[in-house]
Amino acid sequence: MRPLINIIRAHCTILFVLGSTLLVYSLRIFLFDGTGDDGDSLTHFLIAKYACVHPDLFYDHWGKPFFTLLAFPFALLGFKGIQCFNLLNLLSCQIALYLIGKKLDLKFNWLPSLFLGFCLISIKVIPSGLTEPLCANILSWAVLGFFSGRYYTSTILISFLPFVRSEGLIILILAAILLLSIHKWLLIPLLSFGHLVMGLLGMKYHNGDFFWTIHNIPYPVNGAFYGIGSPFHFILKTPEMLGPILTAMFVGGIILIIFLPLVLYRKFSDINAKIFFILI
């Protein structure tokens, strides 16, 4: 009993954040109706729900195969099941952010978890069937792995991100740059691990095409449907995603990053600090 009490005392703030997140979102999920989004949220849910009946859905590129694989047991329980899946992803992501904060010796290492839990975009996407929470969860643990020296595990995790969200392809490029910067270039081929696994597993459902993961990327295939948006879309929408307070802090942080990086980079010489600044 005493070790448990000591653990609670040592991590009481983050436990409070996690408990508050669990309570608020559980009430939102079980007391109120809604899907978080009228289109993609429902489609991802339906693909995950019926993948057992139609196995080809596990390898539907638009549905995101890795998301479908992890989400389908929850989707079988109904839409509230997949909402709970995204809530678990949020809680897991908060834990990873807290551990990253401890690795960096941040005084208020619980704050990122609090901000993530209750920013506007989380309030929208957590009670939904969208893929963003899983992507954030995997990426957070991968970043923690880099800080902890688990480069193989982190690289493999990142290799599956394109099968959770298409933006994962961009993250693959950034991960390759990071590996080069910290002299771990021999791990760069591991970034293709997700494509190799999914290519082998799904070629049966794509006419024997091992490269279906490349040939069937949904956005180039359906370019006429999706159209072209502004490259500044997410910058302009930041206040709607984070809220005014977090947006102001975000802008302030960018200013500090622009003017203070060299000073802080010289102050910290260990590999964790270098990873931190490269990620920024």
Describe the structure concisely.
The chain has 280 residues and is mainly α.
Overview of the molecule:
With 280 residues, the protein is an all-alpha fold. Helix content is 68%, strand content 0%. It is built from 19 helices and no strands. The chain has helices at 2-10, 12-31, 40-49, 65-75, 79-103, 111-118, 120-125, 132-147, 151-159, 168-181, 193-202, 212-215, 218-221, 223-226, 233-236, 238-242, 244-259, 261-267, 271-279. α4 (65-75) packs across α5 (79-103). The relative contact order is 0.09.
Number of helices: 19
Tell me the major beta sheet.
none
Task: State mean pLDDT (0 to 100 scale).
Answer: 86
Helix percent reads: 55-70%
Radius of gyration: 20 Å
- Assembly of the depicted chains: single chain
Order of helices and strands: HHHHHHHHHHHHHHHHHHH
Span of the ends, CA to CA: 41 Å
Broad structural category: mainly alpha
Ordered list of secondary-structure elements with their pairings:
Elements: H1 2-10, H2 12-31, H3 40-49, H4 65-75, H5 79-103, H6 111-118, H7 120-125, H8 132-147, H9 151-159, H10 168-181, H11 193-202, H12 212-215, H13 218-221, H14 223-226, H15 233-236, H16 238-242, H17 244-259, H18 261-267, H19 271-279
Helix pairs in contact: 2-5, 2-6, 3-4, 4-5, 5-6, 5-8, 8-9
Keywords:
280 residues, mainly alpha, globular
